[in-house]
Design goal:
Keywords: Membrane, Transmembrane, Transmembrane helix. It is a single chain. With about 110 residues, the protein is mainly alpha-helical. It has three helices and no strands. The longest helix is centred in the middle third of the chain and has 61 residues. It is rod-shaped and about 115 Å long.
C-alpha cells in the first residue's frame, strides 16, 4: 500500500525555506494588525481623557460664571430706592465667604 505523498503537508516538509517564509509572513502580518489596533486603542483612550478633562474645565468655568452672576445680582439687590447701598459691607463679606472664586468686592462711590 502506497501513501499519498502529494498532500499540502508533505509539500511544507519538502520545502522548508518556503514554509518558513510563509509562516513568517503570516505571523508578521498578524502582529502588525494587532500592533495597529493596540496603538489606535491607546490613542483613542488618550483623546477620551483629554475630552473628559476639557468637559470638567468647561463645567468649572460655567459654575464660576453662574456663581459670579448670582453674586452680582445679590449686590445689585442691596441698592435701595434712594440709589444707596444698604448693608453693603455685610452682604459683601458673606458673598466673599461663600464664593471662593471672588477675590474682592469693592464699593464704587459715584458722585
Amino acid at each position: 500500500m502506497k501513501k499519498n505523498t502529494k498532500g499540502p503537508i508533505t509539500w511544507f516538509v519538502h520545502h522548508p525555506y518556503y514554509s518558513g517564509f510563509i509562516v513568517f509572513f503570516f505571523v508578521f502580518i498578524l502582529s502588525s494588525i494587532i500592533a495597529k489596533k493596540e496603538f489606535s486603542l491607546a490613542k483613542e483612550e488618550e483623546e477620551d481623557g483629554k475630552i473628559r478633562t476639557l468637559q470638567i474645565v468647561q463645567q468649572n468655568i460655567e459654575q464660576s460664571l453662574k456663581s459670579s452672576y448670582i453674586s452680582t445680582i445679590t449686590l445689585a439687590l442691596t441698592i435701595g430706592d434712594d440709589k444707596k447701598p444698604k448693608k453693603f459691607e455685610t452682604v459683601a463679606q458673606k458673598i466673599m465667604e461663600s464664593n471662593e472664586v471672588i477675590d474682592g468686592v469693592r464699593r464704587s462711590i459715584s458722585t
